[in-house]
What does this fold into?
Amino acid sequence: MDDLISRKAAIEVVKRLSLGETDAVRLAMRIGYYLERLQSAEPKRGKWILDRSGAYCCSECMEPCATFVLMKPRDKFCKMCGSRNEVTE
It folds into this structure.
């Protein structure tokens, strides 16, 4: 199951749980700590940019990692950093 939820909403739920016993408060604080550090389910967004050498590079990591067809990038995601990249004209 890959449901996307709001990190903020999850932290609010944990805060509501932390109103009771001392051990429950500690557990809720630890859960909140880890929730805040979870990686976002939404991928980074970038663009394919043409560098001086004629290669398409990712605007997020600047790695030349796009395969292209007819001189335009074909990939939707960067193979190096995972960002979702728009195709530039």
Q: What stands out?
A: The chain has two helices and five strands.
